[in-house]
Amino acid sequence: MEFNSHPATNRKETISEISNFSSKKVPILFRNSISEIPFTTYGTFAIYKYPAKFIPQVIAYVLKNYAKPGMTVFDPFAGYGTTGLVARVYGYNYELWDLNPIIEVIHKTATLKRSVIKIQNLIELLEELKKSKKEFIPNWSNLNYWFPKEFLPLLSKAWGFVHSLSEDTKYFLLIPLLNITRYFSWSDETVHKLYKSKYSRKKIENLLKGNWKMKFYRMLRDEVLKLFNKICEYEKLNPKSVNFKIKSGVDTLETHLEESVNILITSPPYLQAQEYIRSTKLELFWLGYNEDYIKNLSKKEIPYRDVKEIEIYSPKYHEFREKIKENHLRILFEKYFKAILGVFSNLGEKVENYMCIFVGPAKIRATPIPIDDIIVEHLQKFGWKHEITYIDKILSRVMFESNINPATGIKDSRIKTEHLVILRK
To answer: Beta partners for 356?
Structure first.
């Protein structure tokens, strides 16, 4: 594979190049394209329900087809951190950024080695947890709103114990305890946001009628053993020892890359689903982050912040902007594209070979927005050449669907495909 490396300022795109990219679209089913990763939830690629998570086969496909030994991979909207986990499998150095600090917990847990501890030691730890007198109470003014008062003494002791453990052992318990803690809250753990539902109310009602303490410890034990098995699965992929950087709590819209990287691969926040801090704040409080810090993180999410004005070099952006009649939706549209295109224009200056951007054609009032085409049109102005766009069919969704969109009264139609744009410098 040959790389073309030249400054954006020296490249002149022709009209035919700009208009031709729509023909470079190829259907693919990523989940069936990587034989060594048998399914999307294999190993530690699915130890925590993070919203809008990359499937590992997407990153694996990029690395197998576009990367060369010695390259560094970079994900500025890393979320769960799947890019780093896959990079380890194929022996690439990586750098991950995300606004949400939970990425550090997920990454440290997902890269644990089973040699650190034996299953019997984990069972003994859980017995110690039951007897522990240590306590931890989150610094959260809404704690009593989200947790029945009956559960809080048990939860505070469990968390007090886990927070007291050493780095070597606590990560075997942290995510299992996070998963169980959400189950024992008023939140609906089947939905990717902090949300009280009829289901969650019934769940708590049924828990309080039974031996919920026994259920708590049994569920925690099952989650710990499940995590251990996931760690064993991941080790079967033979992850390599590589160099990496994790930056959590980082404002990607305001941060510059210090060193050059070879491949940027990322999935930016969804157009109308950008509240990743709010969806995980219950977990962040129990992890020990305080209310002011979490509120400040939330204010940095795209819908709630000021975004720098930039010129957008995409005819399709302007075409679809004019179709949006409602002012609040037009503002959301403008802010979103100014944010993500500004990031890619800025960070792209330090990317030497490829930008690989995974997006879905999100809808505004039932109108699909060609986010992939808008990205291509804009970045061609900065010297990026559109190599190809892969169209991946979505086979399953964790989030619930409804027949009618309550906001519009129109028949609901979820995104059916996701698009991987490959741009070469």
So the answer is: 265, 422
Spatial CA neighbour of 380 closest among 408, 341, 409, 413: 341
pLDDT of res. 200: 96
Q: Where are the domains of the chain?
A: 8-111+239-424, 114-234
Query: CB-based burial of residue 275 (10 Å sphere; 0-12 exposed, 13-18 middle, 19+ buried)?
Result: buried
- Report the alpha-carbon distance of residue 415 to residue 404 in Å, rounded: 14
Look up the pTM and report it. 0.90
Is residue 331 helix, strand or coil?
A: helix
Residue given tokens 């002149």 in the structure block: 12
> In the CATH hierarchy, which fold is given to the domain comprising 8-111+239-424?
Rossmann fold (3.40.50)
Return the closest-CA partner of residue 286 out of 108, 139, 135, 130: 139
C-alpha to C-alpha distance for 397 and 338, rounded to whole angstroms: 28
Question: Position 302: which residue type?
Answer: I
pLDDT tens digits for 376-418? 999 999 999 999 999 998 776 444 444 444 444 444 455 689 9
Where does the pLDDT of residue 11 fall: very low under 50, low under 70, confident under 90, or very high at 90 and above?
Answer: very low
Per the prediction, the chain carries an average pLDDT of 90
Q: How many CB atoms lie within 10 A of CB 26?
A: 9
Structure tokens at 256: 């510059």
Our measurement of the distance from residue 227's CA atom to the centroid of its chain's CA atoms, rounded to an integer in Å, reads 19
The CA radius of gyration of the chain, in Å to the nearest whole number, is: 22
Q: What whole-number distance in Å separates Cα of residue 216 and Cα of residue 207?
A: 10
For 285-298, how does the pLDDT look when each residue is reduced to its tens digit (9 = 90+)? 999 999 999 999 99
Q: Are 237 and 150 in contact (CB under 8 A)?
A: no
For residue 75, what are the β-bridge partners?
A: 96
